[in-house]
Amino acid sequence: MKKVLTVGIAGGSGSGKSTITDILRKRFSNSVAVINHDDYYKAHHNLSYEERSKTNYDSPDAFDTSLMVEHLHKLQNFEAVDCPVYDYMIHDRSDKTRRIEPAEVLLIDGILVLAEPELRECMDIKLFVDTDADIRILRRIKRDVQQRKRTLDSVINQYLTTVKPMHEAYVEPSKKFADIIIPEGGYNLIAMEIVEQRILSHLKK
User: Fold this and answer.
1) Residue 145 has pLDDT above 70, yes or no
2) What is the C-alpha separation between 62 and 130, in angstroms, rounded?
3) Which of 121, 119, 116 is nearest to 171 (CA)?
4) Cβ(198)–Cβ(146) under 8 Å?
5) Residue-wise pLDDT tens digits, 99-114
């Protein structure tokens, strides 16, 4: 059976991970499956909305990584999985699931995917998207206010209390595990060409 090429894409919040993921998904269409670490946030149905909104979502403890690893192994064995779906509007896991069909290339997207040894062991290629902190916070503010209906004050408070310190403690140090560091994300055409050629080589085998 042909091996699944598994690519991890890490980087800070707002760095451009999703842009790279989308570029690769469009470039290789049905040959690519995508799994997002964010969907594996632990459920907090027992907490109030106010309590959930104050939870640290940028710590490794916030994720059900063991379930994600289990699903990764199934996808690498060409088995479909029903992954959980996280609802950013309510700060909680929803009651929905998303069917992920296996493919020859598997992309793992998330801020902490290189910080977790269990996840790194699943990867053939490890990418780190390296983007200036000013750009990342501006992108985060725009996304959270426009798409997730957060207030500006709440976004700034969350950034200062959890996002920034967790980035410095876990995300930035995980850069050392990357095979390729991509400055400017999807706008770095040379780096994207290298990654695309590696995937194309795998698909042609």
Assistant:
1) yes
2) 23
3) 116
4) no
5) 999 999 999 999 999 9
Distance CA 184, CA 51 (A): 35
Domains of the chain by residue range: 5-199
Residue 108: how many other CB atoms lie within 10 Å? 26
Are 175 and 181 a contacting pair, CB within 8 Å? yes
CA distance 178 to 114: 7
Residue with tokens 């850069």: 175
Instruction: Quote the pTM value.
Output: 0.90
What pLDDT is stored for residue 108 in this prediction? 98
Mean pLDDT computed over every residue of the chain: 92
5-199 has which CATH code?
3.40.50.300
